[in-house]
Write a structure and sequence with these properties.
The protein is of the alpha+beta class. The chain has helices at about 45-55, 100-110, 120-145, 155-160, 165-180, 190-200, 220-240, 240-250, 255, and strands at about 1-5, 15-20, 20-25, 30-40, 70-75, 80, 80-85, 90. The protein is globular.
């Protein structure tokens, strides 16, 4: 549901944990988009709608619209002479907004393995193998957000904290916890930086550090980090505000009128 825009105009989406899920807040030039993703095993639809309505930053511009979905994917995105794409192929939890990427990736993959009338089984199998790999790696990254929770104040978050996770995610966590290492596998979507941000952001800390760090003196490490911090500070000082940037480069009629 949308609500009216408020100040300050923020340049990012906000995701806020709720009792049985999370709420998004997406600021646009003329309004704010809002949604509440919840598990109905732990909260009723009315309670979820009430939670959303109670946590809007601006005046509601419509009533909440309920959308139901089951997460997952087809066993085979390519079966015989049919290729499923978009919502026909599956749907993932929208926390990382991966649906548009998956549409584009499926089109690119089909172009790379485009068939003739023989529909070679090797091409079909390779397409499905790559599709499975991509979905599974996105799945692991999404699950991490829930598994790494420190919350224990509701049944939903206790379930997430204690739930079993795929072996591939467990291995990634084990390698990280040992020496702070992250490895990106093949062409998986999320980079090492993305994994690092979630792991450290949710206070999943390694037990030790990469021993190659010992090849650098403490002074050199401090100088390197200080240079990174100073570079960021200098960039921020010269950047316009989000509102000013929009006004100068991409303002809509509604934004100008406001």
């Amino acid at each position: 549901m949308p609500c009216s825009a408020v100040e300050p105009l923020l340049p990012y989406t906000r995701a806020t944990a709720r009792q049985a899920g999370w709420q998004w807040r997406i600021p646009l030039q003329h309004r704010i988009g809002n949604g509440h993703v919840f598990c109905n095993d732990f909260i009723s639809e009315q309670e979820a709608a009430d939670t959303l309505m109670a946590n809007l930053d601006g005046k509601a511009m419509a009533e909440p619209r309920m959308l139901k979905f089951v997460t997952g994917k087809r066993k085979k995105l390519w079966n015989k002479n049919v290729v499923a794409n978009g919502l026909d192929s599956g749907f993932m939890e929208p926390l990382e907004s991966t649906s548009i990427h998956l549409v584009q990736a499926t089109i690119a993959r089909l172009t790379s393995l485009f068939p003739d009338r023989s529909f070679a089984q090797a091409d079909v199998d390779e397409f499905n193998r790559q599709s499975d790999f991509e979905f599974e790696k996105i799945r692991d990254f999404l699950i991490l957000h829930y598994k790494a929770t420190e919350r224990d104040d509701t049944p939903f978050w206790r379930y997430c904290r204690d739930m079993a996770i795929p072996p591939s995610l467990q291995n990634k966590l084990d390698v990280w916890r040992a020496h702070g290492r992250i490895f990106r596998e093949a062409a998986e979507l999320f980079s090492e930086i993305s994994w690092l941000e979630v792991l450290l952001g949710q206070r999943v800390y390694p037990q030790s550090y990469n021993p190659l760090v010992d090849a650098m003196s403490d002074e050199k490490v401090r100088d390197f980090l200080a240079n990174v911090e100073n570079t960021i500070d200098r960039c921020v000082q010269h950047m316009p505000s989000h509102r000013q940037y929009i006004r100068d480069h991409c303002a809509s009629p509604e934004f100008r009128a406001g």
